[in-house]
Design goal:
Blueprint: H1 2-28, E1 33-37, E2 40-41, E3 46-52, E4 63-67, E5 74-78, E6 86-91, E7 98-105, E8 119-125, H2 162-186
Length: about 200
């Protein structure tokens, strides 16, 4: 029984450790933030926006602000400063009244998205003469930019990319699963063991 318990412990650790590494890599990434001010207005209104944790490296693209989705109409384009912050303005486009996504997209030289992007916020388009009853923005728009007097959180800089850690976690999981199948097929999990 002791040998089977040891083998099961190896299988458990072989699965748990890669998953913990992948989770830590995701949690430690510096997520891009976006904040729109004011949060609601009529079409044609000028709106200001700020954000933090964007790539300021010359190899990274400008940050493009889109309406509705990553590939929606472009509202503005801006370049992050050395402090990784952005600031921009745009005019509210013509659209039906309601909540809309404002998405800040940035890519690396190879065209892949910069880690932690896009930044997201919401904006409510209102109509002249309509009673604005307020409402609550959907929960996925809750990330906000830290106040300008406080430094932007830099997050934990990992020695490898998040995607490399995720690939490592998948490889560890596959190796552990393969080891378990091998032990099962060779009968080593069911082999009698003397105490």
């Amino acid at each position: 029984m002791t040998s089977i318990r040891k083998r099961m412990g190896v299988l458990f650790l072989g699965t748990a450790i890669p998953l913990v590494l992948a989770s830590a890599a995701y949690a430690c990434a510096s997520l891009a933030t976006l904040s729109i001010n004011p949060e609601k207005g009529r079409p044609g209104t000028t709106v200001a926006g700020t954000g933090a944790n964007y790539c300021s490296d010359p190899a990274c693209s400008d940050v493009t602000i889109h309406f509705k989705s990553r590939s929606g109409p472009v509202l503005a384009t801006t370049r992050p400063g050395a402090d990784r912050r952005i600031a921009f303005e745009f005019k509210v486009p013509r659209a039906a009244a309601g909540w809309y996504s404002i998405v800040a997209v940035q890519s690396k030289a190879d065209g892949s998205p910069v880690a932690g992007t896009p930044g997201r916020d919401s904006f409510k388009i209102t109509r002249r003469g309509s009673a604005d009853r307020g409402g609550v923005a959907p929960v996925w728009f809750s990330n906000q930019t830290p106040p300008s007097e406080s430094p932007a959180p830099s997050g934990l800089e990992l020695p490898v990319s998040t995607s490399a850690l995720f690939a490592l976690a998948l490889a560890g999981f596959g190796l552990t699963f393969g080891l378990g199948v091998y032990w099962k097929l060779t009968g080593k999990l069911n082999a009698p063991v003397s105490a």
